[in-house]
Amino acid sequence: MSWHNQSGYNQQRPAYQQQQQGYQQQNPYGQQHYGQQQHGQQQQHQQYNQQQQQQHGGYPPQRAPGGYQAQQGPPPGIDPTLWGWFQAVDQDGSGSITAEELQKALLNNNWSHFNAETCRLMIGMFDKNRSGTIDIYEFAALWKYVQDWKQCFDGFDRDRSGSIDEQELAQAFTSFGYRLTPQFCQLCVRVFDRHNVRTMKFDDFIQCCVMLKTLTDAFRKHDTNQNGVIQINYEQFLEMVLDNTLSGI
């Protein structure tokens, strides 16, 4: 299932231009959209109103299961369409969404469900109170996050195959400000290719890019000279990897 209206992606590229050895001085992506949660329900509300007439791949259609029609309208600042999606995904009617419920709702272009690890990762990123679930406002931020990444993914899926290969991934990394070798891009595809077809689906692309940004941010904390080189001992290395693993990778 695909999302339309990709014109906004190319407008965001100037934020990715300045590069350093190994990585960009600023966040390689996510300055405004990618890899960064969105705040301010007023801005989200405007975004949703602009997009509610479009087809939004990855989420269930505008229908609510039995019992939801009788409930009150959406909370303040939440678009009614998004509220309907939230209610449809919230299968047990608890008012919050688990990683398992999110996985059942999100689809790749080939109609396969998102992998469980990516859903767990995204729940962890937007779950502010560490409850293991997300409420409607956290869901709204996650929805915008996925929309931005889908727009990015489609921009590099040149052949419209619904997957990204090594060359397309390298182009994506370069546009984000990373200076990485083809060998590293091949490694990423091997690690995140769950079907042994030498490409990665949309959900794997999200997981790969979040992993890269998270580890880059951790590396940068030790790179006091900002030259792409750090000196750490063995235990510091273990702490860095473990901390970022627990943080959501």
Automatic annotation (TrEMBL):
Keyword Secreted part of the UniProt annotation: no
CDD domains assigned to the protein according to its UniProt record, in alphabetical order: EFh_PEF_ALG-2 (cd16183)
Record localization: Cytoplasmic vesicle, COPII-coated vesicle membrane; Endoplasmic reticulum
Biased composition (Low complexity): 8-72
An example molecular function term from Gene Ontology annotations: calcium ion binding
SMART domains (UniProt xref): EFh
InterPro entries in the record: EF-hand-dom_pair, EF_Hand_1_Ca_BS, EF_hand_dom, Peflin/Sorcin_CaBP
Annotated region (Disordered), positions in chain: 1-83
Family as reported in the entry's similarity comment: Belongs to the aequorin family.
Name under which the protein is recorded: Peflin
Annotated source species: Clytia hemisphaerica
